[in-house]
Amino acid sequence: MNTFLGKLILFLLLVLPTTLMIFGNGPGSSFVARADDAMEGEVDGEDDDEATVETDEGGQEEGDQAVTETEQGEEEEEEEDTQLKPSEDSDVTILFTKPVNTNDLPSGQVVRFMVGFKNKGEKDFEVKSLETSFRYPQDYSFYIQNFTALTVNQVVEPNKEASFEYGFTPSEAFNSRPFGLCILLNYKDSEGNEFQNAVFNETINVVEPDEGLDGETFFLYVFLVAILVLALVGAQQLLTSFGKKRLGKGKAAPKVEMGTTKTDVDYSWLPQETLQGMNKSPKGSPRGGSPRKRKSKRGSGEE
């Protein structure tokens, strides 16, 4: 019995792995393989679709670029067509009357100029307006300030001339800065064709006006003169007081005269010769003479 069970167990151990291997290559494994193949196919399909989309986007971008370039070219052509040009039958000149120097324009003051227009053709020209503006010096298409346009509306017949005066005032905020001054004259002929002449198109400098003597400068000069006068007066007073002090120290003390006074000095004891010498010397003798003379004078007076 035990032998039979041992053989059965051994048979099962040998047969079971073989059975599992056979069933392992059956329909279940093929299904899994097919599912994997399907997933791989889907991924490949997605890659193909993405590649197709990228190709379409590239085509669209190229098309947009072509359209943009075409539109830009058309816009440039339109700008060139719309830009007005001067007529060959016209002659335009300009003359600045205030100031004469066109390189430096004073700020805050009126700048005036005259524009002359000559019709050299056989058709009438109608001068419409005169425009003036400040432009950026490095790029004249950039406007800094537009001045009021002068409306003319004057007809100039063939072989005739006309002149127009215009004035504008540069702002004081533009001091010491360069600008492009652009002056344009707009006109048209009898057929309605419009033209435009750049009368003046150069770089100028806006400078401070050179005035003679304004109020501030005048009062400044008056203040400086007053300070100078006060300084001179003070120096004179100081020198005067210092000189007086020097003179006071240099002078000797004044002599005080005592006048004629009586003295009780007895000169009788002096020798006669000494008294005679004192009487002869005016400095050494007392005023009024010797006592003996005074006594003799008194005696004679009493008598």
Sequence-ordered SSE layout with sheet pairings:
Blueprint: H1 2-24, H2 27-82, E1 90-98, E2 104-106, E3 111-119, E4 125-136, E5 139-146, E6 150-156, E7 161-168, E8 177-189, E9 194-207, H3 215-250, H4 272-280, H5 291-302
Parallel strand pairs: 2-9
Antiparallel strand pairs: 1-3, 3-7, 4-5, 4-6, 4-8, 8-9
Which key phrases capture this entry?
single chain; 303 residues; alpha+beta; Immunoglobulin-like; six-stranded mixed beta sheet; three-stranded antiparallel beta sheet; 5 helices; 45% helix; 27% strand; flat
Describe what you observe in this structure:
- This protein is an alpha+beta fold.
- Among the domains are: 19-83; 90-207, Immunoglobulins (Immunoglobulin-like, Sandwich), CATH 2.60.40; 266-293, no CATH class.
- Helices cover 45% and strands 27% of the residues.
- It has five helices and nine strands; from the N terminus they run ααβββββββββααα.
- The protein has helices spanning 2-24, 27-82, 215-250, 272-280, 291-302, and strands spanning 90-98, 104-106, 111-119, 125-136, 139-146, 150-156, 161-168, 177-189, 194-207.
- Strands 2, 4, 5, 6, 8 and 9 form a six-stranded mixed β-sheet that branches.
- A hairpin with a 4-residue loop joins β8 (177-189) and β9.
- The relative contact order is 0.08.
- Mean pLDDT is 74; it is low at 25-63 and 284-288.
